[in-house]
Automatic annotation (TrEMBL):
One of its GO terms (molecular function) is 1-acylglycerophosphoserine O-acyltransferase activity. It comes from Oryctolagus cuniculus (Rabbit). It holds the Pfam family MBOAT. It comes from the Eukaryota. This is Membrane bound O-acyltransferase domain containing 1. It is found in: Endoplasmic reticulum membrane. GO terms for biological process: lipid modification; phosphatidylserine acyl-chain remodeling. The lineage of its organism: Eukaryota, Metazoa, Chordata, Craniata, Vertebrata.
Length: 511
């Protein structure tokens, strides 16, 4: 195993603020990105930067202050929009320095499209400009900075802004140009009937709660939150029975924030311990590739990919907590009548770790990005929605070859898993024991399939990916292809065939 350089040997450079440089030296963690590390180590640092964590912690404090002292009942929506925007711009400059100009240029270009383009074309122009600009920036990182050896990685916020720009553009189109009968119920609910003002546009894209780590959210939800209509709107959506003697309640997010901060802390501790114990370099060691037997390789692949998850749990849960602390993210009530704060949640850890199907795993991982893909691609394209959605997801993530290995493998696994589930699952529903055996087996298969699929996402480059898959005999690719070729997509007997309208397709399929 290649030895990792000690923290003292890190070469710290950043175009953002250097005021926390002494702290980064003390902790041995880069301010923004360790420019002297090889590409294979990039993944382990991208979410543990001092400037990133400092901004998120400050945003958490600012969010509590924003909710308590700039409440909608005492403060105008313009003031709330302006404060959220200015603080978000400051965070961008603090973290990324002059690289933050990419965010501002893209936002200004797409606002120009929003106000000048026709309603019938605003979504197309916004999508191609935003995705094109993001792709150019991704390519520049490859050819200028050589596979992730960066001084500053500004692509994360740019990816979130791209999601929001395109989401809003499609929703504006739905609100003015889309025919009601052509829209799904969800599209009608989220349609934006009036183009946003410049301040609303800036606030939605650059607010301090989500500019650094997201998540993506819907424009109507955000404006309702700023204007103080968010809770009432969500309660009405779930048919809240208002007591005639009482007004709508004001649920506190404090409990949800504390719970999510506890998850964040546990995730950080797991990341700092598991990643050091099971680094990704295990997957390309000579011992792993040439000496270990197949079952040992499979076990190590599972453990290494498990060890890479906590950093995402940490970043996404912290981002969710920041929004909740500001009062944003209320989603209604659950079946027991408890208030829920999961509107912006990006993952469901319990369902991820207990997933018994590839579909279930994807539905609970990076939830807001999945919703974005559904909004701008899956529901819109007339052909091959699953394939095109996976390709768009890979392009949005970047131009590292590993992303495309992962998402193209994901297409095969998704189609194969769908065929197996449709053809086999009903045979195991006759008894509780049979269903239990089916769940255990499908859980193990799902976890191993996910590990195999996402490994290139961690390795990034072509050579280590091919080396890994060769050592695994390309087993999942071969099995998936055989299943797709020899099992029907739907069984003939027990699934009732229905006409494939847009709305029925959205309900039946997943990506």
């Amino acid at each position: 195993m290649a030895a990792e350089p000690p923290p003292s040997s890190f070469s710290y450079r950043t175009t953002g603020s250097t005021c926390l440089h002494p702290l980064s030296q003390l902790l041995g963690i880069p301010l923004d990105q360790a420019c002297a590390l090889p590409a294979r180590c990039l993944w382990s640092l991208c979410l543990t930067r001092v400037n990133f964590v400092a901004c998120q912690l400050f945003a958490l404090c600012a969010a509590f202050w924003f909710r308590i002292y700039l409440t909608p009942c005492k403060t105008s929506s313009k003031v709330r929009h302006a404060f959220a925007t200015l603080l978000g711009i400051y965070f961008s400059i603090f973290c990324f320095g002059w690289y933050s100009i990419h965010l501002f240029v893209l936002v200004l270009m797409c606002y120009g499209i929003m106000v000048t383009a026709s309603i019938s074309n605003v979504h197309r122009f916004s999508f191609f400009v935003a995705m094109g600009y993001l792709t150019i920036c991704h390519i520049s990182r490859i050819y200028i900075f050589h596979y992730g050896i960066l001084t500053t990685d500004f692509s994360g916020p740019l990816m979130i802004v791209t999601q929001k720009i395109t989401t809003l553009a499609f929703q504006v189109h739905d609100g003015s140009a889309g025919r009601a009968e052509d829209l799904s119920a969800e599209q009608r609910r989220l349609a934006v009937k009036v183009k946003p003002t410049f301040l609303e546009y800036l606030s939605y894209l650059l607010n301090f709660m989500s500019v650094i780590a997201g998540p993506c959210n819907n424009f109507n939800d955000y404006v309702a939150f700023i204007e103080g209509r968010h809770v009432r709107m969500k309660l009405l959506e779930v048919n809240w029975k208002q007591n005639t003697s009482c007004s709508f309640p004001e649920p506190s997010p404090t409990g949800a924030v504390i719970r999510k901060l506890c998850i964040t802390l546990v995730s950080l501790l797991l990341f700092l311990t598991l990643t050091k114990t099971f680094p990704v370099t295990c997957l390309i060691d000579d011992w792993f590739v040439h000496e270990a037997n197949f079952l040992t390789r499979l076990f190590y692949l599972y453990v290494v990919t498990q060890a890479s998850k906590p950093k995402y749990y940490f970043a996404w849960t912290l981002a969710d907590a920041v929004n909740n602390a500001a009062g944003f993210g209320f989603s209604g009530v659950d079946k027991n009548g408890n208030f829920c704060w999961d509107l912006l949640s990006n993952l469901n850890i319990r369902k991820i770790e207990t997933a018994t199907s590839f579909k279930m795993y994807l539905a609970n991982w990076n939830i807001q990005t999945a919703a974005w893909l559904k909004c701008v691609c899956y529901e819109r394209v007339p052909w091959y929605p699953t394939v095109l959605t996976f390709i768009l997801s890979a392009l949005w993530h970047g131009v590292y070859p590993g992303y495309y290995f992962t998402f193209l493998t994901g297409v095969l696994v998704t189609l194969a898993a769908r065929a197996v589930r449709n053809n086999c699952r009903h045979y195991f529903l006759s008894s509780r024991a049979a269903k239990g055996i089916y769940d255990v087996v499908t859980w193990a298969v799902t976890q191993l399939a996910v590990s195999y699929t996402v490994a290139p996402f961690i390795l990034l480059a072509v050579e280590p990916t091919i080396s890994l898959y060769r050592s695994m005999y390309f087993y999942l690719h071969i099995i998936s292809l055989l299943i797709i070729l020899f099992l029907p997509a739907k069984p003939q007997a027990h699934i009732q065939r229905q006409p494939q309208t847009l709305n029925s397709r959205n309900k039946e399929k997943t990506y």
